[in-house]
Amino acid sequence: MDVNILKKVIKRFLQEDIGSGDLTSEATIIQDQSGTAEFIAKGSFMVCGIETVAPLVFTTQNPIIEITHACKDKTQASPGDELLVAKGPVLDLLKAERVALNLVQRLCGIATFTALFVEKVKPLPVRILDTRKTTPGLRMLEKYAVRVGGGYNHRFNLADGVLIKDNHIQACGTIKKAVTRMREKVPHTMKIEVEASSLDQVRECIACSVDIIMLDNMEPGMMREAVKFADGKALLEASGGINLDNVKEVAETGVDFISIGALTHSAPACDISMRLKSA
Amino acid sequence: MDVNILKKVIKRFLQEDIGSGDLTSEATIIQDQSGTAEFIAKGSFMVCGIETVAPLVFTTQNPIIEITHACKDKTQASPGDELLVAKGPVLDLLKAERVALNLVQRLCGIATFTALFVEKVKPLPVRILDTRKTTPGLRMLEKYAVRVGGGYNHRFNLADGVLIKDNHIQACGTIKKAVTRMREKVPHTMKIEVEASSLDQVRECIACSVDIIMLDNMEPGMMREAVKFADGKALLEASGGINLDNVKEVAETGVDFISIGALTHSAPACDISMRLKSA
Amino acid sequence: MDVNILKKVIKRFLQEDIGSGDLTSEATIIQDQSGTAEFIAKGSFMVCGIETVAPLVFTTQNPIIEITHACKDKTQASPGDELLVAKGPVLDLLKAERVALNLVQRLCGIATFTALFVEKVKPLPVRILDTRKTTPGLRMLEKYAVRVGGGYNHRFNLADGVLIKDNHIQACGTIKKAVTRMREKVPHTMKIEVEASSLDQVRECIACSVDIIMLDNMEPGMMREAVKFADGKALLEASGGINLDNVKEVAETGVDFISIGALTHSAPACDISMRLKSA
Amino acid sequence: MDVNILKKVIKRFLQEDIGSGDLTSEATIIQDQSGTAEFIAKGSFMVCGIETVAPLVFTTQNPIIEITHACKDKTQASPGDELLVAKGPVLDLLKAERVALNLVQRLCGIATFTALFVEKVKPLPVRILDTRKTTPGLRMLEKYAVRVGGGYNHRFNLADGVLIKDNHIQACGTIKKAVTRMREKVPHTMKIEVEASSLDQVRECIACSVDIIMLDNMEPGMMREAVKFADGKALLEASGGINLDNVKEVAETGVDFISIGALTHSAPACDISMRLKSA
Amino acid sequence: MDVNILKKVIKRFLQEDIGSGDLTSEATIIQDQSGTAEFIAKGSFMVCGIETVAPLVFTTQNPIIEITHACKDKTQASPGDELLVAKGPVLDLLKAERVALNLVQRLCGIATFTALFVEKVKPLPVRILDTRKTTPGLRMLEKYAVRVGGGYNHRFNLADGVLIKDNHIQACGTIKKAVTRMREKVPHTMKIEVEASSLDQVRECIACSVDIIMLDNMEPGMMREAVKFADGKALLEASGGINLDNVKEVAETGVDFISIGALTHSAPACDISMRLKSA
Amino acid sequence: MDVNILKKVIKRFLQEDIGSGDLTSEATIIQDQSGTAEFIAKGSFMVCGIETVAPLVFTTQNPIIEITHACKDKTQASPGDELLVAKGPVLDLLKAERVALNLVQRLCGIATFTALFVEKVKPLPVRILDTRKTTPGLRMLEKYAVRVGGGYNHRFNLADGVLIKDNHIQACGTIKKAVTRMREKVPHTMKIEVEASSLDQVRECIACSVDIIMLDNMEPGMMREAVKFADGKALLEASGGINLDNVKEVAETGVDFISIGALTHSAPACDISMRLKSA
Fold it and tell me: Assuming Cys at both sites, which of A54, B149, D36, E32 could form a disulfide with B111, CB separation 3.0 to 4.6 Å?
């Protein structure tokens, strides 16, 4: 996660929330008043963004703001925990409050939700992956939260990973033709992943020496057969309809990866509030 | 919702997902191939963004794409319903797919979730409101989804509404002083809203002829007393900890508005998929 | 007025004036030479932007520049007064000079012009308001200058205030229909203002419990009747063709607000010059 | 004036005025309603921006809007004249109205004001010039208006013209040293202009074969001597304190150019209104 | 190569070259004059950008311009060949000319230079690769030119490929530790490439099951040993100091890839000129 | 060269190269590790950008980075020379490396190549000029490099210089008409340059009192005649097909300027590498 790219995005978020100015605070708060803002956990969750993102929101709003305490990402928070302390002009603490909270509540939510999946599949040698089903504009941050939660990232965007899906296969005629065309063009640094929804397709993939096979919406039974058939010749990624109830069963089929869109599109937000004390 | 502002945002979302290009599709799909993409509902939900947002994602990616069918926002979708049909270059249909889906799944989710709250409080004369607890970067869209769901918008940002909270009151000493300062500065087009967490504060607000009082985290009993006390002299907004289970009880207290952060930060995404047919 | 938003705008203004570089200064001034620039008033006027905007122009050009003196906005300047002192690299003082002067001369002009109107209506309980007739790109700054001059701001843009004009009324059929549609949609934090050009329309507005009525281009006599009729049931705003000669008469009709486009589109610029001394 | 650059600027202006949407119009105007907007002159003035800028504001807001009539820039308008007719969605006509009017009222004002100066000095072979004292963000447009009014442009910014002022002379020690350094660096396509405030400095400039001498705040008598002394060896530009009352006297001294900051910073805005008819 | 991203970049290039307008053409060319511009080859080279980039420069400047002929990229041009024909407003053809030519001359140069390397190594099963040594701001275009010339792309940026260099190895202590840390974090879609400058390091890489080994500045002899040792267990990429004279010898060592920074940083530009005919 | 404009461009270059983050370094380098990076010359060349551009790349990536040594631009480098030393977080040194090197290798190349031409024409009183044949996006930097190499800049863009070419002449009918139209419009600060490809055209230019004549693709013999004919009445600029072999002969014809597109489009890049030491 690059700080410069993050700053640019945060500036836009602040502008969205502040508009042409904070009418209420500018009218009621004295210009030079400084104070202390504290983030307090209102529930139990895995911390994410408190160490890295929230401080940047505050210092982007005003570089004078000092972060005197910030919980490390990946630590566990309990209700009442003081997660972050920021000192500086009250006006700027209030202007940055909502953006900072809206971001970290979501990031803590994703990290916490991811950690639940990771916990379920322990100690199996399988990785929990995210997808491109992220909130538009927040992909970099949400994929960071998945890593904090113990998950791994699938490709970041269409340009840094190859995934041949049914539409591509259909357009080329066969998996073989699609893979051949792909091999002709893809940078040598990238593996080729192909989506398969039947064992026949798994076989075809193996025949083409595909690097990774995405098992699309398969039943655990079929996945087990795919694992047996692949026998280490390709990495296997389970995908589609996986939740906290069935993730363990999927993991036990022997697949190498499990990708779950819900990590980013359906993680419940965590509750954090900001408390202000005058200096 | 202004189309020009929306387009600018969508361009950024497309760039986030496409990066320097779609490696897979550019290698496997023939440049000039055109086809038809269909959005299919995978569950029951209220449609939002299909009429207004998804078409703009496709035409922003390539103005040649034609939308030949799009469900009106606010209609009810059932599993298997064809929500949208887009015709054009397959390459661009695939490039726009993920952004379009990520947006509408979220927007349908918010509209559907809002409609549940709206339904619960019928036929009471109370409005369900959103808050500023929206996803950074998506506020305009998410507030649109709340309206589609039958809810109403609270202020859009810090510049277009006045809300005097405990921090402002504390900084000024008393509610009276805060309101007086506010009156000195606020445009005459805006009402003044003040947060109150006790009946004493409600009384103080009424004494200052405040336009709206936000009843912050009050028990229904206390709200009822506030309603009685206010007696039409100020509008009352209930806020804090309201969910589908208790929203009716809150509504029955007689408050005018109920604001619910969860509408935008915790609405579960709806499931929609895109199916491609060659032309 | 948010500093971050202001900075972004100032960067564009500097780029407009500097282009690919200052040919003359870069050729004739030694790179590391530092000096002192002084802003001197060449007339009598109300100071605006000297405390808040000019320093930001200089420090945006080069954060090393130090502002060692700056007159408070709202103070009265006389010819020869030293308004501001900036120390730093001569090259950057010269590059920022024109943008800083162009801005503050205009802002001082607006504040001074506004103050003339405010003075004229004293001690009547009426507020002088600006309009949206501001210079494109400078609205935030110009509305700030109006406040410095003792005036008040009307809505900032089309999104943070409701003003139903003749075109809207015509489109809906009657004022009543327009107000009803508006009430169905507008956030509860906003008052509803309607433009009326006859006493009949004023009556219709009152009947609809409109919050504010804009009396459009009415004669003082008609305004007085409107005031009598409204009798406190709605706020009244006089608008159209008001100048320094007739503003007092308008104020004496008893309206609550007088909005004047000329505050921002026709305030004469004040004269300020920059003097440079080598350090 | 390049259309692409202009469009980019207009987009920002529209966004400033529209914000997150036009609350009033979106609530009261039916989505698909189309109509006709007319710009009507409310006074006598020289037209500027009606042919070139206003149409671009409307089509930038919505490319569907059709301009069926637009007065040529540089024609003379009388009260009641129909300056422009635009047809399209009423919603977009209303959203673009204020930005279009704010721009053209200012541009007409500058063209009209410039034409007054040009008229005064006829038929003398002298050119009326603008300066860099333009409104930040509007330089390209305001310099266009000066040309429409019959004036000429001085340099656009610090990068496309050389003007050695007292500060540069002081930094170098003498005019000669400043000019020598300048000659060492300046592109061969540019003339060298030097500011002189005494006849001694004029002589020094001539001795250095300067291309243009700016006579800074000189009395007409001294200008006449400068003209005699220069005798065609350099172009002479009068500058400082020139207004409609004294411009003719200045022109008669025989200078080649007269530059006037007031053209852009103090031209009174012209009055134009928009009238809407439903289609 | 995504058209939308390309357009955005081209807009900036046009603005750099046009500035506030084309003084010469706007003064000498009649506004509505239309004409035909032809690109003529002044030498022999491989065409690149004529089909894809130049048309976009013209239509970005003015969408009215029609491209009636454009050579396909990858075809061979001879002196005098008509490469492209564009019809439209002469003013816009002239404004777009320099940017279009500056781009395609460079792209043709890179494609032509790349093709020379590709030719040299035929028919060996080795791929010619580019590097990140591209012109800042032009990477997407330059990497496209390499592909047109028959070469292949290495990673696009630091985010879409893994390359462990000496600095990373040194920071971790050993190749093994670096690779282990990397495996812990890298998306499963990416191969791991490690730089080796000795046979010992090659061995260490193989021991760690690295996917690709970059043989950094090795003599052909050493490369041959590396190939022998690797024996298909890893892909091998030769890098450093490779030119048209030695590329064949390097290819004959049996490496899989040869990466050459000179493809993009030292390809001589091709000569193309634009000829204008009035319509 | 304005630092603010440069910074904005550098941010884009860094984003192009870093994408969503540096996968390799973020995985293998410890977050807080700091170190020292050195730029080492791998050949003999004139330094350009080391003093001015490279430091800005590093501090734009992270303002904490300290530049403890940087060779002055215009000094001569020999193989092994330490050109620059930067201290700070290793992660940021690595992230900024490629952009910094890609820029300075190109800038050193241009300065060095320009200096070769300048050397060839010594001690003749002729200036070597660049053209607009620069790399799109890098014009400001490349024109700086030409100046460092001892050359001079032709106009920066179409807005800050007048050059009437054959297309303009053809559109107007005669040189005289083109010049007359131009004089009617051009700011008085600019000289008028006309392209001539025959002695007849040179005569026509002189007859029109053109300031500069560009001798387009003339043989040295014809240039000599042009010089004789012009006899100081106009400045002469030789252009077209000039290289290191014939530049001296061209210079000896007596022209005032020689413009060479190859300075910027064909200067070979210089070789510089970065070496990292842990602190």
Answer: B149
